[in-house]
Amino acid sequence: MDKPVCLVTGVGPEHGTGAEIARRFCEGGYKVAMLARDADRLASLEAKYEDARAYPCDVADIDALVDTVARVREEMGAPSVVVHNALRSVRGGILELDPVDLERNFRVNTTALLHLARETLPSMLEAGKGAILVTGNTSATRGKTNWGFFASTKAAQRILAESMAREFGPQGIHVAHVIVDGFILSERHAKVAAERPEDALLEPDEIAAEYVHLYQQHRSAWTQELDLRPWTEKF
């Protein structure tokens, strides 16, 4: 039988969260469509991961996103699992930031999720199964100083995911929102990791493992919202 298709947005550097999600699904027997803006980085991952294919795309460009999903359907098949991992964030005061950035954040974090769902749900509904998994953030649950432009759009994303779960869950589609709470282990956060105890930062590979687990859950015990944080994280 032909392998099922997984579509992942926000596939960044190797060993990052998006790349590890793509790798995990490839190793699990899926063909993986990897979407991100950096074509060279995607090409490098495509060469390393079996059955992965690069689709350079800025999800903020909704027309380009819709066209790219159509290409994935034509070239790889209809996705049975979609992971929206792409995000956009700006940090600063409400009176300091450009309101345009709020709109840009919303387009990547929330509007792109809507269009991904609209483009992939019909085939999932026809099959009577499928999954849409969304990478969230603690900001989706509370507003904080200097994070208003990010938190408001991640909160909207969270509620959209819950709305989709309520609407399409009874039709066999598993929609889950993953709250990632804490620093993610990366070169960017190497200094933070050096100052903290072992395993005090979220490891991308372990995050990715939870996405695979979510997709494999039996429908009698689905998780709609999962929160992940290191053992040392205060919450």
Structure description:
- With 235 residues, the protein is of the alpha/beta class.
- The protein has one domain (5-228): Rossmann fold (3-Layer(aba) Sandwich).
- The protein is built from seven helices and seven strands.
- It has helices spanning 17-27, 39-48, 62-75, 99-127, 148-168, 190-195, 204-216, and strands at 5-9, 31-36, 52-56, 79-84, 130-137, 173-180, 225-228.
- It has a seven-stranded parallel beta sheet, with helices on both faces.
- Helix 3 runs parallel beside helix 4 and helix 4 (99-127) packs parallel to helix 5.
- It is globular.
- The mean pLDDT is 95.
**What CATH architecture do you see?**
3-Layer(aba) Sandwich
List unreliable stretches of 5+ residues. Answer: none
In CATH terms, what is the fold-level topology?
Rossmann fold
Could you spell the SSE succession in H and E letters?
EHEHEHEHEHEHHE
Question: What is the helix content?
Answer: 40-55%
Order of the strands making up the biggest sheet: 3-2-1-4-5-6-7
Instruction: Indicate the overall shape.
Output: globular
The first-level CATH class is given as Alpha Beta
Strand content: 15-25%
Based on DSSP secondary structure assignment, what is the total number of beta strands? 7
Distance between the termini: 45 Å
* Largest sheet features: 7 strands, parallel
| CATH homologous superfamily grouping | NAD(P)-binding Rossmann-like Domain
Number of domains as seen in the coordinates: 1
Determine the oligomeric state from the structure. single chain
Q: Structural class of the secondary elements?
A: alpha/beta
Individual helix count: 7
Whole-number mean pLDDT: 95
Give me the Rg, rounded: 17 Å
